[in-house]
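Practice record 12: protein with S-adenosylmethionine.
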Amino acid sequence: MSASTATIHYICTVRSSRAKAVELARAEIAALLRDCDVALPAGGPLSEHRGVCWVDLVEVHARTIEERATRLGYTERIDELIATGPPRKNRPDGPLRWKGSWYERLTVWESDPEEVRLNSPDMRDFALRGEDGRVRPARGYRGDGSSLGPKALPVPDCRLLVNLVFAPEIRSLLDPFAGAGGIVHEASRNGYSVTSMDIEPNVAPGLEGFGAAHQVGDAGAMPFDSASFDAVATELPYAEEQPGTLRRWTNEMLRVLRPGARCAVMCSLAQRDSIAAAASRGGAVVELCEELDRRGTAVAVLVLRR
Ligand SMILES: C[S@@+](CC[C@H](N)C(=O)[O-])C[C@H]1O[C@@H](n2cnc3c(N)ncnc32)[C@H](O)[C@@H]1O
């Protein structure tokens, strides 16, 4: 076997705050490596622990996983599994056993908690337009506390949504419910050309400050041409439960996507079925539909492909 076609096995540790969301962590890794012939085996060493998953990658893509890992939201560490012999003594940090073989772990990437903290809503510079029309700094803006208004999404969730729509050819990304801008901030950091929308005029200066071309308006009637974006990633206002409104939002998000492109949506569990049904009726494929418990709030994450 030549070096470039040998398979490397990795074990990934899911962020402790998302340890129950292993399926989403797997989906995020699979999406971020979709051009790398990645496989995600159902089992591997430490299967008895919660919050781990496994990745198999041909050696030629080893650099890609190390480079792109810095974008990951739900995974906090990736170790390469290196075949070794049995341990001389039973040490807790010794090699791992899996199906009769032994493996050492070599950490290839680990999330930096300080980097995540510095990019969190609490630490970000933002700007708000007041009712008098004047723009004021609002560092650490997390939302207005209303049920339909902005509510800043944590960094791991923003990264997850941006990564779920990853494809190497993506240049433009739209967040039509941008709020305090977590998704916009992450997508801009990835070098995408980001467009944002929000019905609240006050968040416009903050979103422009994150590099977005921003539109104040209703995501149910977007001012964009059909097929004009490579990706959509967004978090809906959870309080909206009218099926007609959810259908209009879904149809609009799919209309502005170019054919074959993806839309990742975080929504409340109550919104999930209306969105999935509208997407299917509109000819889109529901590629992912996972539930998630966000500190007592039942939400769903969907990936729709136009
Ligand atoms: C859950 S928040 C998004 C929070 C965002 N993900 C963040 O990290 O800050 C939903 C946003 O949708 C906006 N919104 C509500 N109805 C809208 C509509 N019809 N069109 C566009 N934006 C809308 C709200 O003002 C709010 O900012």
